[in-house]
Amino acid sequence: MPKFYSIALFVLIVAASGCASFQTAGQVQRGRQALLMNEPETALGYLMQAAEKDPNYIYTSGNFRESIWTYVGRAQYALGRHDEARSSFERALSVYRDDAMAQLYLGLAMARSGDREQGLKHIQTGLRGLSDWIEFLNRSRPYYAFWDPSGHIRKEIEKTLALPSGEQKESLETLMASAEWVGQQMEEEIDKVRRDEERQFRRGLDRDGRGGVGFGLGIGF
After folding, report:
1. Rg of the chain taking only CA atoms, in angstroms
2. Given Cys at both, which of 66, 68, 70, 139 links 102, Cβ 3.0 to 4.6 Å?
């Protein structure tokens, strides 16, 4: 009998863990969509709930990874809470050091808080990280949906990196506006790639009834 109860307890723990992960993923997805619709207050509510449940959560879609704290920070940044956002982005990088979006927005938060020199360094690091990631993934996964097929994100990154970062406030604002545009477009690209891969997967099913080539569909877990 004790053995039976141990097995039952184990099953309950696994089921509860899976349910919690599903709930966290749902909250992150709702937060993401609120951010994309320019509703940062709503987004922050969902994202903080997710972060409290799983502070190490990494959103993954199409091999693109972003810390829950990056999303929290982006909502705070959109609300003008730049010091709070900076702390969130720093925490994101402590969880996942290769988070290029966290680097980008950390730089933006720092620049808007007055730390212009260090902010620009982080912005540039984040932009280069995003561009390099797109190039690498498109080369390494030639049969999957392409990221940034028109090249407009990478072109904007190249243009932004070439912008002067002189003393004039206008030049800094232009650079930050371009960097913000890249961040927004990159987030939208996540959903575009996922939809493209789902269409490719369905075409494979229609072609041979078995799925053809397996595609890595990101579902946010």
Report:
1. 20
2. 70
Domains and CATH numbers, the chain: 17-181 (1.25.40.10)
User: How many helices and strands, by DSSP H and E, does the chain display?
Assistant: 8, 2
* Residue 37 DSSP label: T
Structure tokens at 36: 């994309």
Residue type, 97: R
Check residue 7 and give its pLDDT.
Answer: 45
Angle formed at CA 70 by CA 68 and CA 75, multiple of 5 degrees: 100
- Using left for φ > 0, alpha for ψ between -120 and 50, and beta otherwise, residue 112 falls in alpha
Residue 68: what residue type?
Answer: I
CA–CA gap between residue 93 and residue 48 (Å, rounded)? 17
Determine contact, residues 92/102, Cβ cutoff 8 Å. yes
Residue 66's beta-bridge partner residues? 59
Q: What's the rounded Cα separation, in Å, for the pair 209 and 79?
A: 48
Sign of the CA dihedral running 204, 208, 209, 210:
negative
The pair of structure tokens assigned to 192 is 């575009």
Give tens-digit pLDDT for 112-125: 999 999 999 999 99
In sequence order, what are the beta bridge partners of 58? 67
Are 159 and 178 contacting, i.e. CB atoms less than 8 angstroms apart? yes
For the packed helices 169-208 and 152-162, what is the interaxial angle rounded to 10 degrees?
160
Element (H, E) at 67: strand 64-67
